[in-house]
Amino acid sequence: MAWLDTIIQGILLGGLYALFAAGLSLVFGIMRLVNLAHGDLIVLAAFLILMLVSALGLNPFAAALVAMPAMFAIGWALQFFLLNRTLGTDILPPLLVTFGLSIVIQNGLLEGFSADSRRISIGGLESASVALGPISVGVMPLLTLASAIAVIIGLNQLFYRTSLGRAFRATSDDPVTAGLMGIQPKRIFATATGIAMVVVTIAALYLGTRANFDPTIGPARLIYAFEAVIIGGLGSLWGTLAGGIVIGIAQTFGAAINPEWQILAGHLAFLLVLLVRPRGLFPRAVD
Amino acid sequence: MTDTAVTLWRVETKTKASATFAIVAGLIIVLAFAAPLFASRSVQQDLFFILTMLVLAQNWNLLAGYAGLVSVGQQAFVGFGAYAMFALVILGGLDPLIAILLAGIASALLAVPTAFFLFRLQGAYFAIGSWVIAEVVRLALAQWKMLGGGTGTSLPREATRDMPALKLVGDLFGVKSSGAGDILTYWLALLLAIATIGLVYRLLRSKQGLGLAAVRDNQEAARSVGVDARRMKTLVYLAAAFGTGLCGALIYVQKARISPDAAFSVVDWTAYVIFIVVIGGIGTIEGPIVGVIVFYILQNLLADYGSWYLLILGLIGIVIMLFAPRGLWGLFAERTGIQLFPVRRRLTGGPVPSSKKGGPHG
């Protein structure tokens, strides 16, 4: 049964990677912007939650709820005042500005919180588990996957059932024509990044409660998120979940063979998909 | 102007400023080669650092500024070149100088399969993809137990001490082997920097360079007039891998100690390099030269401030990208019209005044 356990742990880990990736996928889908600081923003949100927990004595879940509007505001402002200036046909400005931002956030966090490893404590939940038949599954990993699915359902509802979602899709298709219809693309973009930061906060809650984190781990989270998006196929949120699960399973299998191979196995799975299905498993977008 | 005058049209890129600069550059090169005669060892080591960063910056600039391939994974080639050199010296018993050259070739060979994967990704995805490749190479080499695995290893002292070239330099200057090592690596870095700038400049002035600029400015239009964009980009990618790997090997001959985390550091070999190019001016040969000087000064000013240094460097990079995307050299060239490495073709010698400025260079 060891292999079944490995697969289930991998699927659950994939939920975390899907949460990392959902925000990245959302921002790319609407404004074709790849935010190289995405991973560092996740770590920033984790430190924000940690601060709220330790300063106000809040429960981590409540702290995440408090952090959400703050992260929304950060995302909104970041997009409106900084990233909107970089959008255009040239891919250099957004890449280099977000790369610079990644370095700034990392070193700002190092300055503020030192390089020490931190963890957000959630008491008994940390080690709680439930038995699924012969296999016992951690409550937190299960909650992570459930949250990932809830986030994807929520984002899909937002996209296809609300007027804001219609504005998102319209702006994504053609910002100029959308502008003629009374939509302000710059505000739409800012709102989209704000929502992405809310998703980032949820991802940060699970990142911070499940394992140790420090200011330098952001880029690796960006890479996992990116791999999940590419494996799933651009433009498909359910594909992103599948991509996250593929990496999760590859990593747990790699780790089962040799703990040093965990991360490498995830990357190799990504390269393999890129080799046989360059457009991902469930491609939707043309670019 | 009389009608009888024979009008001789010429296409040239030379300007008055560039002709003067060529003489100055020649003098600087002579002076730089003579530096070990009068410069202390710490100055030589600083110059070595500046020159190797300049080589990395020129290579990245060739990729991002001219071929539109924004890579954040060039540390893959620095690290791979360094590890290849270590393997050739420690396991193969080769002379480090030969190992450096072979390490460059090994890096170019590594670039063949990575190009195969990366060229499936467009634009921004190419950037993160290159980072993934660098991670894969780092994690794979960390498994190589004979080279120290995850903790790394040192270059055996006798391997560098017994180099014939080192003995020659040592006898020439009457210094011990450690001093001779600094002189030798400094000279090699100088040679590599001159060769890199020379080759990049030559490429940009050639027909291929014109094609490259056309692809960068408008890929579809360039392809419609027969430029093979993919082939050009692949060639540039391989050339940059060669140059970066060679430079990585040279850096680690001087460091003489390697570990996967240091050799594949995204901050040391990519973030610094990107900031150098962005601050100096992307898409020009002068830019990285200006950038590396600014970078060196900033590093010395802010060395005591730890992570504030990188934070400030990041902020400067962002501000420059937003408000002066052509960098410091771009600002200067815009105001003065001076180009030290002109690549813009101008028609001269005809009856029409040739002082009109053309479009963006390239």
From TrEMBL, chain A:
Locations listed in the record: Cell membrane
GO cellular component: plasma membrane
Pfam families named in the record: BPD_transp_2
Coiled coil region boundaries: none
Protein keywords: Amino-acid transport, Cell membrane, Membrane, Transmembrane, Transmembrane helix, Transport
Transmembrane regions listed in the UniProt entry: 6-29, 41-58, 64-83, 95-115, 135-159, 188-208, 228-249, 261-278
GO molecular function term, any single one: transmembrane transporter activity
GO biological process, one term: amino acid transport
Mode of membrane association: Multi-pass membrane protein
Family label: Belongs to the binding-protein-dependent transport system permease family. LivHM subfamily.
Protein name: Branched-chain amino acid ABC transporter permease
Species the sequence originates in: Mesorhizobium neociceri
TrEMBL record, chain B:
Transmembrane intervals: 21-41, 47-69, 76-94, 100-119, 124-144, 183-204, 235-253, 273-298, 305-324
Membrane topology: Multi-pass membrane protein
GO MF terms held by the record: branched-chain amino acid transmembrane transporter activity
RNA-binding found in the keyword field: no
InterPro entries in the record: ABC_transp_permease (IPR001851), LivM-like (IPR043428)
Subcellular compartments: Cell membrane
A cellular component annotation (GO) from this entry: plasma membrane
UniProt keyword list: Cell membrane, Membrane, Transmembrane, Transmembrane helix
Protein's name according to its UniProt entry: Branched-chain amino acid ABC transporter permease
Origin species: Mesorhizobium neociceri
